[in-house]
Design brief:
196 residues, 6 strands, globular, WH-like_DNA-bd_sf
Length: 196
Amino acid sequence: MSEPKFSQKEAMIYSQRVAQMSKALWKAVEKDWQQWIKPYDLNINEHHILWIAYHLQGATISDIAKFGVMHVSTAFNFSKKLEDRGYLKFFKKEDDRRNTYVAVTEEGEIVLQEMNENYYDSNHGILEGSLPIKSIYGKFPEFLEVMSVIRNIYGEDFMEIFEQGFKRIDSAFDETDGGLISLHKKEPELQAVDEK
């Protein structure tokens, strides 16, 4: 390894600054997220998995774990809980019998739709904290430098899944009524995972 082009002091201050800002930001995000999903008896992992499965349309458990930044066992266990509640279904693809995929059920879609329709029924500190920036620049912060750091840590395939998910959000969201466009209108043929 070549000699670093920064001092130990500079590295430590940068690392600690990122750690402190990330922790403060996460605390606010977590509070907002929990308040939003509380009426639906979901925890953050369950909502995140449901959201990812909806937007990736037939994601593997590995995809969910990677995009959700969680361990595969966490993704699987919470996905099973969502299946038990009727929000997700597991299936195998004819051309890929090795991987298990998940898809959102109609009932899961209804819950997501209700959450979106009731978005403003809870406080959103992150949104409120960002409004002064939006009023000055006409848009919300884009975090381009942070995205670059995340790309360097998690890799290009993570960013591809990340972007694919947000493109689906954009195309699936109906601004007229504040809701999601149903995936079940054009649902792919799925083969259920065999019960054991």
